[in-house]
Amino acid sequence: MAVNTSELMSTIVSLAKRRGFVFQSSEIYGGLNSCWDYGPLGVELKRNVKDAWWRAMVTNRRDVVGIDASILMHPRVWEASGHLSGFSDPMVDCKKCKERFRADHLENLDKCPKPKCGGQLTEVRKFNLMFKTWMGPIEDSSATVYMRPETAQGIFVNFLNVQQASRLKPPFGIAQIGKSFRNEITPGNFTYRTREFEQMEMEFFVPPGEDEQWYEYWRDARLQWYKDFGIKADKLRLRDHEQDELAHYAKACVDVEYLFPFGWSELEGIANRTDYDLKQHEQFSGKGMAYFDDETKQHYHPYVVEPAAGADRATLAFLVDAYDVEGEGKDERVVLRFHPALAPIKVAVLPLVKKDGMPEMGEKIYRDLLDNSIKSFYDQTASIGRRYARQDEVGTPFCVTVDTQSLEDQTVTVRERDSREQYRIASSELVGLVRKKMRESMK
Ligand code: GAP
Asked: In terms of pLDDT, which residue wins out, 126 or 14?
């Protein structure tokens, strides 16, 4: 059944709340604008997204290592990086309704865009997006520190620490997943643009002159990653930045965009950051940031290619893309067609009835799955059809039913989410089957 695009987002937002993916932050106090809490299924989904990224970017590669840097960094970092002077958006205020807008999102800077207001707008002002706080008990300017607006700088300042500790030679990368904070003027579209969010960034350090070829490599690799985890190819595209769009540090940048119900929007940026950051930190800290090449006996500042993704945006894209409504009338079903590696629950164990030893056998199977670190769920309430529907709606790839025959021959029925195909296997083979299916889904 076709779903009206304009309604799709609100349908997904309400499913996300009802089934425990995402709740509004501090809801009982009326919520806090642009802040969201991941519920039991959402936290599993987002962890799976981050794990999939880490596996592809770090675990499965010989040339990338990880770090976990602190959120609060020396304030000079943000002077060197350019964030203190340049990380701002142009903003205007409506003198009548007092609402604040991003000037670069408005067509007409003369009057308030709200139809019922039409008030006069202020002059355009620059608004720095970094959150400030104080370190220690004295709240004065000498104690000001910033909540990091990107994880990247924690990598740059540790470049030589990591390079020397790991004895790496360019080309190599340093990856990090962590929270970043931006005081966005206009957050919105659910978890798409928020003021507190998680980034998955990797800085790939290469000899100057190899930057353009690595930039091409990472553009393709990052686009492919979203496809590998099930995002439909026709909903993904690469969009090159125009010269006047480029960040102050970038020589080239391309966005991986996804066609959300609210239009094509950025999931990730891949930038050629040149040697800008290392040289800036060298200048501001007075510490050499060049790499010494043992073979040529030369010092040089590597160029950096940076794939910078958002964990929350990727999670939202996987959720939206997985949403499907199939059939009509009483045959209609809502399915989240998550890639098995991303699905919050892998297996649901469902005894057909609540008696005759079926719950006991179901419990044993459930315990066995958990003992093998396969995130599973046990449900013995409601009709079997209703229970399948509940699992389809949260994207569980496999349901396992325990019935009368199970008690006789120790077999169970496996029902697959997408095809609804059902087959019997020995219950002792279940863990092996799920593992095999998960492995195959990664090919
Ligand atoms: N280090 C480069 C950098 O931070 P960016 O394009 O500003 O580049 C990278 O951010 C990614 O971080 C974005 O593509 C997006 O996925 C995520 N991101 C940025 N701002 C965000 C926000 N306000 N809310 C959610 N995610 C955000």
From this structure: 14
295 token code pair: 């073979």
Are the C-beta atoms of residues 268 and 317 closer than 8 Å to each other? no
Q: Which atom of ligand 1 is nearest to the CA of 308?
A: 9
Pocket test for ligand 1, best of 53, 151, 176, 199 (most atoms within 8 A of CB): 199
Question: Atom 14, ligand 1: which residue's CA is nearest?
Answer: 268
Convert the pLDDT of each residue in 283-300 to its tens digit: 999 999 999 999 999 999
| Residue 286 Ramachandran class (φ > 0 left, ψ -120 to 50 alpha, else beta) | left
Give start and end residues of each alpha helix (H) in 129-198. 152-156, 159-166
CA of 415 from ligand 1 middle (Å) equals 39
Give just the sign of the alpha carbon dihedral 108, 109, 112, 118. Answer: negative
Kindly report the number of other CB atoms within 10 A of residue 163's CB atom. 19
| CA-closest residue to ligand 1 atom 18 | 310
Total residues belonging to the chain: 443
In whole numbers, what is the pLDDT of the chain averaged over residues?
A: 95
Buried (b) or exposed (e) across 337-363, using 16+ Cβ within 10 A? bbbbbbbbbbbbbbbbeeeeebbebbe
pLDDT digits (tens, 9 = 90+) for 116-134: 898 999 999 888 999 999 9
Q: Which residues line ligand 1 (CB under 6 A)?
A: 150, 152, 182, 184, 193-194, 197, 199, 201, 266-269, 306, 308-310, 312-313
CA-to-CA dists, residue 369 to 162, 373, 409, angstroms: 38, 7, 20
Residue 261, classified by CB atoms within 10 Å of its CB into exposed (0-12), middle (13-18) or buried (19+), is middle
Cα–Cα distances in angstroms (integers) from residue 142 to residues 138, 162, 212, 227, in the given order? 9, 30, 41, 48
Nearest-CA residue for atom 15 of ligand 1: 310
Report the C-alpha gap between 50 and 5 in whole angstroms: 28
Atom of ligand 1 nearest to the CA of 266: 14
**If residue 266 lies in a helix (H) or strand (E), which one and from where to where?**
strand 263-274
Q: Could you tell me the two tokens for 111?
A: 């009057």
* Helical segments of 167-240, H only: 211-228
Phi-psi region of 26 (alpha: psi -120 to 50; beta: other; left: phi over 0): left
